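Case study 2.
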Amino acid sequence: MNTILRRLLIGAGAVLLVGIVVLGAGWLYFVNYSPDRARYPVRGIDVSHHQGAIDWPLVAADDVSFVIIKATEGGDYVDERFAENLRDARAAGLTVGAYHYFTLCRPGAEQAANFLATVPRDQDLLPPVVDLEYEGNCDADRSPEAVRAELDAFLAPVEAAFGQQAVFYITYGFFDDYAKYLPRRPLWTRWIAWHPADENWLLWQYHNAGRVNGIDGDVDLNVLQGGRETLTSLVRLSPA
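Prediction:
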């Protein structure tokens, strides 16, 4: 092997080694990322049927204070594990809430009826959450005015029934397209493994592949803006 070829191979090997080290460091940063717990002491998760059967006492013992559970989607879908998750998470001592995945292809009033028929209103709950994102949504090309009208049609009956404002879970793309057209509501922001650009949020989803005892596989991890007193203040029994 001549000297030039040997040097080229050594150089390529060095570049490959550096790449592996950088990727490995990046992966370790990602999987272990967690916000400053002194600054954000209240941690929670959000779940759906995708997490399968959950051992809620183990979850509650693993530094988890609250859980927001998928209840409904669109005008007729009900998450198959919602009732079970709600009951068992509450029994384990967790603060609980429910979210609705808002689809752009169904009238807001129909979606509100689905959510109200599914989520009990005789129990203390966190504010209802509206999931606003493109991932998994229908392909409807909706104007901002149309989206706002259907969202208002959802919010009016839901907020009246639960006696408090909803929270918007909103992803980057949806926020960029519709933020200035949406009514003002507390925000649940999604910044994976990176601190949000500002503090204008109530909840921060900081990981989409976290691990928690009692759950097989990945789960979304979140923190609350504030301490235990803030979490307590958010829980409310719906008006009779």
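The chain has two domains: 1-32, 37-237.
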